[in-house]
Amino acid sequence: METHAQAAIVRSGSTSGDRLDTWLHGDRARERQALRRLAALLTLVVGSFWLTGLFDLERLAEGIPAIIQIGSEMMPPDFARWQAWMRPLLDTLAMSIAGTAFAVIFSLPLAFLAAANTTPGRGTYHATRMLLNLLRSLPELILGIILVAAVGFGVLPGVIALGLHSIGMVGKFFAEAIEHVDPKPIEAARAAGATPVQVILHAILPQVLPQMADTVIYRWEYHFRASVVLGAVGAGGIGTELLSSLRIMDYPQVSAILICILACVTVVDAIGMALRRRLK
Fold it and tell me: What does each C-alpha distance from 186 to 99, 181, 198 come to in angstroms?
């Protein structure tokens, strides 16, 4: 009897030891795999630094005196024309709001077509995804240059450029949020005989609205900063004033405009944070 008990204990200990060895072996394998991935990532980062010249310390050192010289010429800031900058700043703000609204209006229906759980078919899914990829691959600056040449100077080409690029970005974020919703409310709504529109309104949108709202706020904050750059290519706003001052090398005025832009960006970011807190 004791012999059988001792044999059972030995077998149990052997099984536990085998499980421990298997677990340790798997843990070491995961560690080696993680180290290989980390090494590949570091190689990619170091290679990117080398290709872009970040390791060229001599060249970087040669640029420091020029930066110091330009910085000294920017002081003190010249706010003599601050009243003339109020309308361009307002145009920049309006451009960011209109561009964001433009993007959201078109992104929402495209997102449902580009989400695997709401698209009417695989062909529609792939076609919509390709359209979003195309819009996302066109930078706002290039779109701004093309649209300024097409429709003339002013904020209109800036709004369209911001909106078209952001349709690709916002549509992708919206579609991914829709794909990750809990399927149970959708199945329950369909089982109850709800139409596709009712399923979207009552089973999908309540789940994704917080994420969508956060994405919209982020894009609005980004659009304000991007509107400044678009102004430099003729799309209106404070960017046009900034480029004009740079062209005549009026650096005190450049620094004053940059301070105004910084103040506006800070206000926009504060508004965005306040909106996020209210939506939580």
Answer: 32, 9, 10
